[in-house]
Each structure stands twice: as C-alpha cells, then as structure tokens.
Amino acid sequence: MDFRITTSLTVSEREEWDRFVEKCPFNHPFQGYDWGHFQEALTSRDVFYVIGTKEGQWRTAAQIFRRSWPWPLDHLGNYEISCGPAFLDFGDLEEMLRYLDKWASRRAVQFSIGPRCTMNVYEPLKTLCASLGYYPTVDPHSTIYGEETALIDLRLPLKEIFKPIRYTTRYEIRRAERLGVKVRFSNDVQAIETFYEIHRRQDVRKEISPIDERHFILLHKHFLSNPRNGAIAIAELDGRPLSVAICYSFGKVARYQWGASDEGHDKKVTAAHLLHWEMICHFKEAGCEWYDFSGASPSLPKNYFSYGVNVFKTGFSKHFVRYTPDFVKRYQPLLCAAFAWRNRIQSLWGRILGLRPFRFLASIRNRLNAEMSSAPVQPSTQKSRTWQRLPRIARMSLAVSLFFLMSVGYVTSGHELWRGEMRPWVMARDSSSTRALLNQIRDEGASPLWPLCLRILSRFHVSPISMQIFNLFLGSVLIFVFWFQSPFSPFQKILLTFNYYLFYQYTVVSNNYLLSLLFLALACVFYQTRRTNPLRLAGVLFLACMTSRNAMLLGLGIASAFLWDTLDTTEKNQRVSLTALAIFGATIFLTGISMRPVHGVPYLTEWYLHLNIYRLLWLADSYAKAFLAFPVPGRPYLYLLRLEHFLLSSRWMLVVAVLLFIQFASMVRLRKDALISFVVSTGGLLVFFYAGFLGIYRHAGFLFFSLLFAWWLSRAENRWTARPRFWADALLSGVLVLQMGGGVASAMVDIREPMSGGRAAAQYISEHGFPETLISVMSVSLGTPLSGYLDLPLYYPEEKEWTSHASWEYKEENKLSDEELLRRSEAEGDLRRLDVLMISDHPLSSELQKAHRMEFLRAFTGSVVTDENYFLYFRRT
Question: How remote is the C-alpha of 202 from its chain's centroid?
C-alpha cells in the first residue's frame, strides 16, 4: 500500500475524503474534513492528512492532530487520531499503523488512536494494536464507560419508533404539542447565538463554567454552516426559545451533541422531549438510518453527575451500544510520565475547584462573564427603558465606570495637589493669552494639549478643583473604553479598574498622562477599522502625540504597526497605504521635534550619549519597576519597591531586564504588527529614558502600557477565534494583581497622609485674612501649590520677582542663605509698606527669628512630598 502525508488537500481530495470516510464500516463524523478544519481553528493544533491507496483506490485515511511540547522540546509532540483511522478492513488498518509507527518514532512522545468499532471486534482489534505496541487507555468492561451510547433505528416506521419510548416521555411530547410548542431547524448564525445564550444562562444557574462562546462561533463557521453536517433545532413557545439542541449528521448517522434548556421560563412547559422527537423525525426524513444520543448507559449509578441526563436519554431508547476505547503508544516513557503527572495535578485541581466554596466563587465569575456577554437582549412586547435596551456589556461598562468615579472621587477629595500637578494649572490660569501660554510651553519643552484644556477650564472656574474633576471624568471614560472595547477577560478588567496607574497615579494625581492613555486606547479601538477608516486612527494618534513625549513614542509604535500591516497585506489599497505612510511620517516628525534639547529645563538639557553601566542598571531597574508597581508603605508617590538597593550592585540586572523584554515580546509574537508596536514603543521609551531623562516610575509606567496596548492589538481582531496562551495570559494577570495591590495601598496611604502641606497652608492663610501682607516664599518648591490654591502671585526673594510659579532653573549650587532671603523679603516689604508672611520648608533658627522680629504662626508637616512642608512666620513692618 502507498501512503502520503500532507498538510493540505486539494478541492477534489476533500470531496473524495468525505465520500471515502462515509463508506468505511466504522466511520465517524470526527474524521470528516470539515470537523478537522474546525478543530484546527479551535485548538491551533497542526493537522496532517494521511491517505493510503492500493492500485489507485483509497483503502485508509486519517486526520492526525499534533500538539507540540514547549521549548526546547518543541520538535516533539503528542499525536492523536480522534475517532479514527477510517479503513475498509483490518488489514488496511494494520498497514497504516505500521507506516505511522515508523513516521512517528522520531517526532512523537505518544501516539493515540481511537477507531470507533463495536465491541464484537474488540478482541481482534486489541490483538492487532498490542502487536504494534498500542494498549487501551481504559477498560471497556467497566461499569461507567464513556464510549457507551443509546441508538434509535430510524429505518423503522415512526409508529414503531414512538411505541418503545417511555410513557412519561411520550406524555411530555404530547403535552408540549398541546401547549403550542413549535420546533424549527436552522443553520444560520442567529441560531447558534440563541443556543449559546440559553446554554450560558443554564450553566450559570448550575454554578459551572459555560463553554467558551468562541467554540460555538468556530463550530458554526467551519462545520455547521453546511447543512450536510447537521442542524440546530430550536423549540419555541410564542416566539420565545425554550430549548435548543445541536445535532451532527454524517453518512447514515445523526449524532446529538449539545443541548440546553431555558429553566428560567415557566417550568410547567418542558420542550426538550418534543425537541428530540422532532429531530428524530427530521433526520429520518433526511435519509439517516441511526440516531445517536452521544452517550447513555443502563447501569449508571444515581450519584453520578450526569444521571439525570442519562434518565432523559434512556427514555427514548433501550438499545445500548459500546464502542472500543482509545489506544495509545508511548515513545518517550519519561516524558509520558511527566505528562501523566500533569494530568493528575489538573484532575486534583479540578476536584478542589469542585468544592462548594470554590464553586461559589466560580458562580460569581460565571455571572460576571454572563453580564459581559455581548449577546443581544431578548425582544419583549412590553416597553422597556433605555437602560434595559442597551447591550449587557454596555450596561456593565457604565456601571463599573460610575463605581470607579465614586471610589476614585472619594480618594481625590482628600488629595492635596503638589507642585507637579499645580504647575500646569497655574501656567494656564495666569498666562496673559493663549499665545503666551504656547510660548511658555515651548520654552519648557512640554506638550500643549493638557495646558490648553486647563486654560479652557480656568476660564469657567478659577479653583484647581475643576482640574481634578476633569481628570476624574477622563479616568471614567478610559475605564469605560477598557470595559466596553478591550479584549481582556472580565477578571483582568477588574484588575485594570483598580490598577496602580489607572486608579491612583494617573487619576487621583492630576496630570496629562490620563489624556494620553485615553487617546492611545481609542487608537487601539480604531486600529480594527484601519483599512476602512484610517483617518480616525490618524486623528487620535495626532491628539496622543500632543499630550506627552511618552505617549508620542507609544503612538509611534502603533503607527509603525499600521505601516507594517499595510505593507504586509496582500489586499493593496493605495489610499490606505498612503495614509499609513503619512501617519508614520507625521509621528516621526513630531517625535523628532519634541525630543530636541531644551535649555533651562532640568531634564532634556542635552542628550546623554555615553556608555554608563550605572545608568544602564538604573534603566533596567526602572523597567522592572514599571511592572512591579507596588509602593513602599508610607510613601505612595515618590518610591516603589527599592530594587536598586540590591540590584544596582549586580550587573545581572541587565540580563534580567533583557529576559523580561524577550518574554513580553513573545506574548505578542503571533501578530507581527502587535510585536512591532511593542518593540518600537518600548525601545523608543528606553532610549529616551537613557539618553534624555531617566525620570521616576510614573514616567516608566508607559513601559507597562506599551505591553498592554500591544497585547490589545494582538487580541482585538481574534478575541473569539483564538484562545490566549495560558502562560502569557497568566503572566499578564499576575502583573495586574500586583499593580492592583499597589493602587489600593497607595489610595489608603493618600487618605491617611497629606501629599503636600500646600492646601492646608492656603486654607490657614485664607481663614486668617492677612490683609496688606507680602507673602514671601523662601523655597521655589513651595510657591506653586500655594499660589494655585490662593489665586495670588507670590514674592520669590531668591529671584526678586513676583510670580505665581517659579522657573525650572533651580540653581541649587548658588542657593542663598536664610539670612539673605529674610533681608530681601524685609526690604521688599518696607518698600511696599506691607507686613511680611514668610514661608519656609524648614524651621528657622531662634536667633534669626529674634533678629528679624519674626513670629512663628503654624507648621504644616508630614507631607509625602518631603520638600513641601510649610513653616509660616509673620513680621509686622
């Protein structure tokens, strides 16, 4: 016999494949070509087609599924022929197994076959398989056996089929008919959506996990869309679906596979019995000779989990048939033992999760998954509110966004703005014109969009509270976008809601980063329609580039992914290609302009282009901190886990950072455009941090969002057609769990401790009035928060000027003494004939107080930002 192994079949071979399998004596639908195509899409396993011919005639065929082992054993795999091979006689089967034995000897860990023969040929089949090294996986004579089922002979007249049915089953059939239950058959996608909706509700009530919706979407796409492969039966009462079943047909056999009933409806109406009877009639008319209930046994114990379903099936037929079990051959005994231990651990873990406390937690998760389902709401004749007409996922997203708004709003109400938050507000409020504001932004090397938004707000409300409210609104919108559009699991979305960056650092702390993330998230949403509407993507990327340098680098990554996708696709569109090139070019131009050195700013004064091992170690430490975002107790803003204490002394930190980068890149490697987005954005950020500004961890947080948005791009278009890999998904969830702890801990510390003493000092000054008083700030770090809350210009004796915010040029090396600062303040007060209110970040000596007749008023200390403690002194002129 001649054999051929291939990974693809021609159109004529596909048709011949199904015809051959149908005429084999022990055929099964799981050896049909469409079923193999469905399994390949569902499990991502490699499929090999084996064809054995003799004198040009097909004698045997098999679909082999390969599951690879992880690296470095990826050249090996577990091979399986599900419910096959298909063969004409046992001689053909023996020749095929001998050929496959040689083929698999160097590439298989184990090889499983499962010819579905009846038990009358079990002994010769067992002898044949044993001679080749295959042994049965289970005992077919055991009481509980998975390959036992009940059959109905459809060759008999309908009266003879109906007569042996149990009397209670016949009663339920007739009763459903009297009540007006109708059964219809369909192969469209709406039918599969109806089935999944009922299946999901049924399993949620039973506190078990429903099958992933992706399974049924792919089942319809690759298998059930063809009426030749089966049908979806729906039992309805007054237009409302009560029970749904999926049945496969192959050759002369119809096989019931999936079923679900809406138990939330009136329990006096049971439609499942009538549904099966109508399916029996339907497939009898279609020419099938047997109806297979896909599992039933006469000896199942009452405490068995599927006993109730078994009673239902045996009510239709007492004709039970047992099929031969699977056979397996082990080529690598040690690896097989490891695989067996893995299966035992998974089985033990499944038993643990089956305990009542864990089932309760699972039911909560299942109900959350059910609420996150995008299935449409069932139509109703009654008038419904607008809220009820929204899809479940939209309602869930709005509810979570409102909860986020309330919880973060509570934390923000007690948050004191420090100088880093207050400076853009004061700049926007006190600039003489928009042009003057833009000139100041340009001189300081900042991005314009956030200060321009604050300038609009300041025209309506002069209090910086309006900035905090605006930032809360942006945070709620961003959370809504994540819940409504992102492809993350509900569990991951919960973790993202309380993420350290989203919940605390970028929302409670008001800055431009939240605006950046919102536009980048919208870019990920619009990336799915990049080929039909690329201008939307261009618009949000431009706005993201106008918010910050870090967002500009992430936008460059998304633009690079769009350009690569346009060049890599076979469907060329000149308009889309030119738009992608324009987006990429504009992003490169904006990035280059914004990265130019700015004199007078403590960061980006000049590029650092020398090799420095300690700078590299600090960069590697920052990369780790971007993901390990958990604060040291008592310091939620300035410090994270101080990894540098034990990592900067070791050059192995560079190796750890490189390995982390490679691991994160491997998470998105299946989509080239997502991988390019991650590499370009992360690489650009690392280069900018090294050569320009190392920054602190709130800047390094964009390294985390570089991974998050790349994962979004890799999952957005195939969220229902490709299951996320376990290790990658678990790693991302682990990072999010840690960051959620950091977000909650930081919020609790912020509630207990003041971020800055500026708000309390401003309230004290406002309450006591201090008319005709010169307010002099001895430290440049103190003036901006105070001026923001008081809406007053202050006097800076070091610069001898009145302003609402100090410049970036701190001049630490030429800092004046307290004596000189006091003299300058007194001189200014005497000149203007004003009393002097001196504000310092440290207590003045008693000698200075006596010499300058200073009266100590109040101290506001304990700030998290250590150089924003306020000591107030008063001197009468």
Answer: 26
